[in-house]
Amino acid sequence: MSVWWSEVSGVQSRDLTMRIAAGAGAAFPPPPVLTPEIVGRSADRPANDNHIIAAPVSMLGAHGAFKRVFDIAAAIALLIFSAPVLLIVALAIRLDSAGPVLYRQRRIGLHGREFEIFKFRSMRQDAERDGVRWASEHDDRITRVGRFIRRTRIDEIPQAINILRGEMSFVGPRPERPEFVGILEREIPHYHDRHAVKPGITGWAQVKHCYTASVDGARDKLVYDLFYIKNYSPLLDGLIVLLTVRVAFMGIGSR
User: What ranges do the domains of the chain cover?
Assistant: First the structure.
């Protein structure tokens, strides 16, 4: 086992990932594909020179159809079973601060196409009056209700609408804002390869890595995103969904 995987994700994450890959019938990606050097730790490597990952065969055909059926069923179930919570959250947002309950935000999705993501508003209405920036720890733009719904991931539930519209999947790399994608694609070689599949409400990077608000953090998370794309299987999707429940209840990695 190469050293880089332990450095990036830790021994426990490495072992768990290997077991998932073996159980899903997926081969562990060789170091030339996912080494930290390839995702930008080597200064002499040109950014975005070639694609190293395309949409895997495992996401096509029967598996692709199953993933779409699962997405639709999961999105409908999520909206139905969380409806009481969503109503309470909507009321709390309205009472807590001025502004709309839901908001739309431009994100980059499949094949680099832009779309509008739906989220519960968790920040002040004037949060970006000074320009776009990542959320930071103890960010004073986040409202009282916003801090809770971000920690529990409730703010992401409206993205079930994006799933039903075919713009997102339940599991996949998280979609990023165009302003940040422009920076990250210049700084991180092969960052664009994460757009080979639909973005997700949750993903392998979200359950195995902390929240990041920097180019270095995005570089580390790219390793997880590319691993997921390379080794997709229904089993891996199922495990990510289960881990997401744990992350939501424990408030891991939120900001």
Answer: 7-250
Residue 114 main-chain phi, psi, to 5 deg: -80, 145
Spatial contact of 212 and 133, defined as CB atoms under 8 Å apart: no
Strands 114-120, 169-171: pairing kind = unpaired
Q: What string of pLDDT tens digits covers the 255 residues of the chain? A: 333 333 334 444 445 444 544 444 444 343 334 444 444 443 334 344 445 455 565 576 777 889 999 999 999 999 999 999 999 999 999 999 999 999 999 999 999 999 999 999 999 988 888 778 778 777 889 999 999 999 899 999 999 999 999 999 999 999 999 999 999 999 999 999 999 999 999 999 989 887 777 888 899 999 999 999 988 889 999 999 999 988 887 766 554
Residue 250: its H or E element: helix 234-250
Would you give the distance in Å from CA 58 to the centre of its chain?
A: 20
Cα distances from 97 to residues 44, 123, 128, 130, 146, in angstroms, run: 48, 9, 16, 19, 10
